[in-house]
Design brief:
The complex is a heterodimer of chains A (245) and B (217).
Chain A lengths: L5 H14 L6 H16 L3 E7 L5 E6 L4 H8 L6 H8 L3 E5 L10 H8 L3 E9 L2 E10 L7 H19 L7 H29 L3 H14 L4 H10 L14
Chain B lengths: L1 H14 L4 E8 L2 E8 L2 H13 L3 H8 L3 E3 L6 H4 L3 H7 L4 E9 L2 E10 L7 H20 L14 H4 L3 H14 L3 H15 L3 H9 L11
Classes of the chains: A alpha+beta (245), B alpha+beta (217).
């Protein structure tokens, strides 16, 4: 595992710090974390899941927003390393998928079928409360060394702080408010993906790229834009032409 | 619909050890009214917010996040100078409001009242969220052109957390050329009429095998 250049790591933390300002877009932030995690420790895919408050883990962001990967992250609400990390509060590192069929009888074969060899999951923790998990997939086994794990843990901690936007959340209630809002924001994005896919006659993966590049080119927040697409499409006519004729 | 909602409010009050529970209906232009409540106090506090144009329901709905007030005598009186004292005068110490929403489809709010100030435990919050999910389903069933007339299929139907269902909601909105809330209701009604789980129908829609049209419903 090649050493991560210190300046590369520093770049990432500067980027993170830049985004930790008022009014940031939580989904974009979490996606950035997953992409940076993937780059820094050279795994193939990274996903971030949150406890939805009703006892299930929901996908919030992924380094590759592809449907087949989302499925793989999502199916872990029943079984898998994310669920284990979430419930136990301890990390799962370098789990060999080929040897994991007994541990995760549904998840392991599916992950192997997609082409992954190793899987890792770190709990997202705020003091004693675990709010979700960060999930990594590798194309080979044994890819994360101790230094990598420290980096990933740091990124997981940053994700948690950014998500909650308040380093000293004293009250469980604020946590609930913040997480429910974030989870609902993700739903808005999925709804917009569907609507745009129909409007432009493309796949949901392609429609997500449309949404993301439009947001970037017009300096809009992803979730706000998604909300407009499904509630007042006439306000973004060049993204949603003739939606409601 | 209001019968089922009233029953839900009563059950919720029991399991949450609440002084009262209510479901309010809202739109962007304002609050429509209290759809159901477990008792007169919950009802009048719901109605009061519409009169005053302020209150935790309004905030929860417009911010799309729960508003959990553990102590009505605290900063709540600054936040809601009309509502907070009125609620306190009615003997209430805490109020927990959950928006009733599925992504950008917003319907209203669920209010849980308590007599004594205090936090909402993780378990209670989970229960309240589950109650909110059921309230959403009841409201969607009551929306539309198709009267399912029967018990909803369970929490997983609309809010199982399957991203496919949400994508299918967006697609159905475009296919039927209706607002998002109506698309949710129609999708749900279609799955019910077909006697298929919503996830299945959603998968067909997202994978291009199915497209709802008005004739189907």
């Amino acid at each position: 595992m090649p050493q991560v250049a210190p300046d590369r790591l520093a770049e990432v933390f500067v980027e993170v710090a830049d985004t930790l300002v008022a009014d940031f877009d939580v989904i974009e932030f979490l996606q950035m974390i997953t992409r940076r995690t993937r780059e820094l420790v050279a795994v193939t895919a990274v996903g971030l899941l949150l406890d939805d408050g009703r006892g299930r883990l929901q996908v919030m962001a992924a380094s590759n927003e592809e449907t087949r990967l989302l499925e793989l992250f999502q199916l872990q609400h029943n079984e898998g390393p994310c669920l284990d990390a979430f419930t136990s509060g301890t990390a799962i590192i370098n789990a060999d998928l080929a040897l994991a069929a007994r541990r995760w009888p549904t998840f392991a074969p599916r992950a192997t079928a997609v082409g992954f060899r190793s899987v890792h999951a770190l709990p997202l923790r705020l003091r004693a409360t675990v709010i979700g998990a960060l999930n990594l997939f590798g194309g080979q086994t044994g890819v994360l060394d101790a230094a990598d794990v420290r980096i990933v843990q740091a990124l997981a901690d940053v994700a948690t702080i950014g998500l909650l936007q308040e380093q000293a959340i004293r009250h469980r209630e604020v946590l609930t408010e913040q997480l429910q809002h974030a989870l609902n924001s993700r739903v808005v994005i999925e709804q917009a993906k569907g609507a745009l896919a129909r409007v432009h006659d493309v796949t949901v993966d392609e429609s997500f790229e449309l949404l993301r590049s439009y947001a970037r080119n017009h300096n809009r927040k992803l979730v706000e834009l998604a909300r407009l697409v499904v509630t007042s499409p006439e306000s973004v006519p060049d993204l949603v032409p003739h939606l409601m004729d | 619909m209001s019968g089922r909602l009233a029953a839900l409010c009563s059950a919720a009050s029991d399991v949450l050890a609440a002084a009262g529970t209510s479901v309010s209906l809202m739109t962007d232009t304002g609050v429509l009214g209290v759809a159901a409540s477990s008792d007169p106090v919950a009802d009048s506090l719901g109605a009061l917010q519409f009169t005053l144009g302020e209150g935790p329901c309004i905030d929860a709905y417009s911010s799309q996040r729960p508003v959990l007030v553990t102590d009505l005598s605290g900063e709540a009186s600054q936040r809601w100078p009309g509502f907070a004292p009125a609620a306190a005068a009615l003997g209430l110490g805490a109020v927990f409001v959950f928006p009733l929403q599925v992504g950008a489809a917003r319907l209203g709010a669920l209010t849980v009242l308590r007599r004594t100030p205090g936090g909402l435990s993780g378990t209670s919050a989970g229960l309240a969220l589950a109650v909110a999910d059921v309230a959403v389903e009841i409201l969607l069933d009551g929306q539309g052109t198709v009267d399912t007339g029967q018990e909803s299929g369970g929490l997983d139907d609309v809010l199982g957390g399957q991203y496919l269902v949400y994508q299918a909601q967006g697609m159905t909105m475009v296919d039927l050329q209706v607002p998002l809330v109506e698309a949710l209701a129609r999708l749900r009604a279609f799955a019910f009429a077909q006697e298929r789980p919503l996830d299945d129908v959603a998968r067909d829609i997202v994978e291009g095998r199915l497209r709802l049209d008005p004739q189907m419903l």
